[in-house]
Amino acid sequence: MTDGNQPGPRRFAVIGAGVVGASVAARLAEAGAGVTLLEQDRPGQATTRWSLAWLNSNDKSPRAYHDLNHAGVRAWAALADTLGGADWYRPSGNLEWAATPEDRERLATRVRRLTAWGYPAHLVGAAEAARIEPSLRLPGAVTEVAWFPEEGYLLTGVLTTRLTGHAAQHGATIRTGEAGRVTGFDMDGGRVRGVRTAAGEPMAVDAVVCCAGRWVPGLAALTGPAEAAGPAEATGAAGSIAATGSVAATGSAGSTGATRATGPVPLVPWAEPGADAPGLVVEAGPAGPGGPARIVHAPDVHLRPHSGGLVHLEAPDARVDLHTSDADLRRWAGELLRRARRVTGGLDGAEVTGYHVCVRPMPADGRSIVGWLPGADGLYVAVTHSGATLAAHLSQLIAAELVSGAPAAALAPFRPDRFAAAGGSVHTPGSLCPAGYSARRAEAVRALAAHPAGPSAPAAATTRPARARTASCHAA
Length: 476
Fold this sequence. Notes:
The chain contains eleven helices and 23 strands. The chain is α/β, with parallel strands linked by helices.
């Protein structure tokens, strides 16, 4: 923000009640600020609800981003002590192995790099891996497994309830449904002075913190000049119109005074067929005795325990999008369960209970976007693919700089103005996915090619009727 950074509690609207937005609202309220948390749905029911919620800094670079995520992992451990962590915090550790010689060398190189950076990471033998996670069914060719003991996961449903409750206890107002669906901003001289919702209640604010995932570009665009309108993709779950990441503005009804082009918030494309950002999440169960107790990253399936005796399943090569047919989704869901049965016990009697096409909020250069948005004074954005890992730490940094007016040095590499400085363009190699995700997708393809029993495409699956949903998910 270019002006008005005076310290002291002020009036904030926080848009989006996922794990990031709920954490920010709780931290701001705890600091004595006036906070209204806005959410069109129920808190934690979009990205956060279906996320793997894997707490890690496992394959995140450059070093500044690794350090930010490592601090995020530690921040959850600290918060668990004061926010009933026994109900939602699972510091289970994570096991990972590779199927091909080249991928084993990449994994070993990663372990060495992480160890040099002070991140707990070890290569253990197959027998030790089986002791750590007795459910494992390791292929005979696997002699070493990477063990990351500090990693874990969150049960996000309970967590968001705790976070929003904590915010309310400290004076925050929580508006959901039409009262929480943002439809526009009141602007004065290029500065946000108010928020309008579908319920028609104008709300005066000193600043807005936008934590609405993939919908942030469209919400930010509502602060810009109407003549800069661009194509819209879809109606957002957080309210408003979501524009493609490259569109700087879609209009600003009701703005007054001078207007300026809003800085870009470029995200990996998600709406068109073949887009990289959507992913498939499968839930299956019940897991019987001997089921997994930790996070497991096998080459072609990623899994963890879930509440209610279920397991959460994902696969980096499950190429689905918002246009994939239900029949194909069902086949993929069955395939993921078959893969999980090959690598862990306790699932022989499990069935697919649900599958979901999820849209992950992926900044185009793979790094979080956090800070005041150029061209829209009073609008602060926080968009990250690592929401579950970062929320506890990121919310501390955000609240501290909002209340004090002093920028957080740890957030300097992640400011939105890096895109404005580049004229809105960003270099995104390969598939536009963050590097770690693209590497795991390629590894899964190689693993299937090396696995004579593994199908290269989903085969027909026999499952009991399951819930098919589309949602935003997989923040890790």
